[in-house]
Amino acid sequence: MRDNWKDIGRDIVLILAGTVVMALGLDLFLVPNRIAAGGVSGLATVLHYTLHLPVGAVMLALNVPIFIWGFWRLGWGVGFRSVLGTVVLSLAVDSLAPVVSALTHDTLLASLYGGVVVGLGLALVYRGRGSTGGTALMAVILRSYTGVNVGQLLFLVDGAVVATAGIAFRSAELAMYALLSLFVSSWVIDLIQEGISDAKAFLIISDKHAAIAQAVLQDLDRGVTLWEGRGGYTGKARTLLLAVVSRSEVPRLKETVYRIDPRAFIILADVHEVIGEGFKELDKKIY
User: Fold this and answer.
1) What total number of domains does the chain contain?
2) Can you tell me where the transmembrane regions are (predicted)?
3) Torsions phi, psi of 130, nearest 5?
4) Residue 258 neighbours by CB under 8 Å, 6+ apart
5) Domain range spanning residue 114?
């Protein structure tokens, strides 16, 4: 189904807002402290200090061949939103640089807060279904040749940028701070994309599965799914129960299970996100 103009407008606003936030993260924290936290922006930071070139202009110049390569290899599916994000980010970095100054010259603080702000901005861009090109697009292109996981390729490319910065600045410490900032930004992106969930998943194995399922349905008012399985050692058919509850309901569910069957086997796992009845609804505008 084609996007309507309202959805397109919303995506553009998110991409514009995200790129401006990213530019602030670079200009306020990372670039002034020579923290090259991977990506095209990291390589542009190195060239800024070694060749005295403007960061935004270098980012745009480096992205041009990457996009040409992407269009040639992947087709026009690379998309308008990615081009928009790349161009606006480059312009915003150079436009804001003369009017803002570093908020701190403490390298640790700069790497942490820079990672948070850049991660927040990039998450907004992703919410707008866009990107800022760079090494992320390069990783997708390389995957079309090698078949290697995009995450692994992105780690290798960003790692090469960080290593280059460490050599150029003759500082292993700056390289380590850059890795820290890269980790923080990735964590913030995941946090915003997946949301903060306090849900827990229970996988319960018990001979009294019917009674436990009934108790979960009635006492906790939560759904439960029954799976048919077989013990690997005994070969005996078993019924497994899957239930997802909130963090506050965990003690009640444990108590309920052990009250019915003290010998029950329970696996408790964190759940990043739960969409559906009793939790949260799907935001169709984002997906």
Assistant:
1) 2
2) 12-31, 51-71, 83-102, 108-126, 147-168
3) -120, -170
4) 264
5) 5-194
Give the 3-state secondary structure of residue 230: strand
265-270 and 199-205 as β-strands: parallel, antiparallel, unpaired?
antiparallel
Nearest to 87 by CA among 36, 1, 22: 22
Other Cβ atoms less than 10 A from the Cβ of 285: the count is: 11
Beta-bridged to residue 227, according to DSSP, are 240
Which H or E run contains 113? helix 107-127
Rg of the chain over Cα atoms, rounded to whole angstroms, equals 24
275, 239 contact by CB (below 8 A): no
Same domain for 80 and 150? yes
Token representation of residue 29? 């924290």
Give the model confidence (pLDDT) of 99-158 as tens digits.
999 999 999 999 999 999 999 998 898 888 788 888 777 877 777 787 766 567 777 888
Q: Nearest to residue 62, comparing CAs of 30, 39, 33, 38?
A: 39
Report whether 163 contacts 176 (CB < 8 A).
no
Asked whether residue 103 falls in the same domain as residue 207, the answer is no
